[in-house]
Write a structure and sequence with these properties.
The chain is of the alpha+beta class. It is 34% helix and 19% strand.
Length: 73
């Protein structure tokens, strides 16, 4: 099974901004959600190529979960 990295995507006035909390500084953007996902996948793959295998394994072994909750505002 291929390793997985967490990705957070935020929508703003310019499109979509994506980043990986495990991989500090690994970020990308896109004008559509699909473009942002493709771009962050490429950014993550390039980022991982720069790391020693042991460091890559440690970073990708973290489990980061996100969810949305309703709040009274």
């Amino acid at each position: 099974m291929a390793p997985k990295a967490s990705v957070i995507i935020e929508r703003d006035a310019h499109g979509y901004y994506a980043w990986s909390p495990e991989l500090k500084g690994c970020q990308s953007q896109g004008s559509s959600l699909e473009e942002a996902l493709a771009n962050i996948r490429e950014a993550i793959e390039l980022y991982l190529e720069t790391l020693p295998p042991g460091e890559r394994d440690v970073l990708l072994s973290q489990e980061i979960l996100t969810t949305a909750i309703e709040v009274n505002a």
